[in-house]
Amino acid sequence: MRTLIKNIKELLQIRDASVKQVSGTDMKELPTIKNAYLLIENDLIADFGSMTNLQDYEVDTILDAANKIVLPAWCDSHTHIVYAGNRENEFVDRINGLTYEEIAANGGGILNSAKKLQETSEEELYEQSVKRLEEIMLLGTGAVEIKSGYGLTLEAELKMLRVIKRLSQNYPIEIKATFLGAHAFPKKFDTNKEAYINLIINEMLPKIAKEKLADFVDVFCETNYFSVAQTDTILNAARQHGLIPKIHVNQFTSIGGVQIGVEHNALSVDHLEIINEGDINSLKESQTMPVALPSCSYFLGIPYTPARQLMDNGLPMALASDYNPGSTPSGNMNFVVSTACIKMKMTPEEAINAATINGAYAMNIATTHGSITKGKKANLIITKDIPSYGFLPYAFGSNLIDQVVINGAIV
User: Fold this and answer.
1) Rounded CA separation 115/207 (Å)
2) Cα–chain-centroid distance for residue 18?
3) Which of 43, 89, 253, 338 has the CB geometry, 3.0–4.6 Å to 223, for a possible disulfide?
4) What are phi and psi of 203, to 5 degrees?
5) Nearest-5° angle of CA 241, CA 207, CA 134?
6) Which pLDDT tens digit goes with each residue over 300-327?
7) How far apart are the first and last CA of the chain?
8) Which of 86, 112, 79 is nearest to 325 (CA)?
9) Angular region, 347: left φ>0, alpha ψ -120 to 50, beta rest
10) Which of 336, 330, 366, 371 is closest to 353 using CA atoms?
11) Contact, 230 vs 199, CB < 8 A?
């Protein structure tokens, strides 16, 4: 099956296969071809170039992208979209002045979602999650990481991960699964937190590994959640089962989470709303990707990740949605890119790099996703008629997507 997209106004994110991420000042560069074509063969990018060099290919389908821009589909490396119900009541509580931490202390937050999920059947959980997955695909996401962490019991965590696996089997989008049993301490373990950590290490991790339900492991390393020492213990245990760390750090406080992530060669450290010079220096000496979640900051009214400070220190940056019921009930990566430009002062080039090639790196799929490269997956966004790619973050409230292609097929 061959599809030719011709007369592309501008084809974005042209990369050599050797480029797995971009950092620092390189993030300001977004290689493009104007008046371009792109050839898809089955599910892969087979060729691309200037229309002046277009050969007489035999194809099954031709798409005319005159006045339209084509770019790689978004790679969303941090979500929690498998969850039950919603937390709109907490949204109102925040409007009335309660903080995220106060809501959690009153039995809301993660423990509220865990209670709902434990009471929801696996089939119902799957059906709720399908709607969210289909929604983000139509919004241009072509690869997504999904975490557990709203189960907090062996049975419920397994239920979440089995739903993630089923989604992966039933949809063409690339899905990576992360075990986040260390998301919060269940109430029953308030006075014996080590017992819950032992449950994670001795029961959850072996069962998850045996059933091959996760690619990554995550810990919410934060004040009032999991300490640096507890995070270290869990990551050491997860390593024995071949799980790669991707951890929540520095959302509210800087307690050494970045350093423990780097020490464990974490693929990414996510949130980073609060960072200091020591955190930056640790990241400089690593291969770990900093990931910002600007729509979480928008929704909660907390500081934004200081992207300029990170990039001006030569670091890379990825953007992700954090789609979850409590702090970011949206998986719209177009809004994420816009918010990064508006609130974090990232240029359109930096934001698009962060949401494509660097997002793919933060999911360990940069060899197959995140750029227009021969042999990579044909996961594409075809925009509507727009003046330039800078219009994508500029017109933050408009749906500027005409078509989405995942694995060579129009969604």
Assistant:
1) 22
2) 22
3) 253
4) -120, -50
5) 95
6) 999 999 999 999 999 999 999 999 999 9
7) 16
8) 86
9) beta
10) 371
11) no
The residue written with tokens 């709303």 in the block is 273
Q: How many residues does the chain have?
A: 411
Amino acid at 161: L
pLDDT digit string (tens) for 359-401?
A: 999 999 999 999 999 999 999 999 999 999 999 999 999 999 9
State the average pLDDT over residues 51-65.
95
Question: Whole-model pTM above 0.90?
Answer: yes
**Amino acid at position 201, single letter:** I
Q: 40 is written with which tokens?
A: 């898809």
CA distance 67 to 345: 28
Tokens representing 89? 């009541």
The candidate with the shortest Cα–Cα distance to 29, out of 271, 316, 285, is 316
| CB 33 within 8 Å of CB 389 | no
Is 356 within 8 Å of 75 (Cβ atoms)? yes
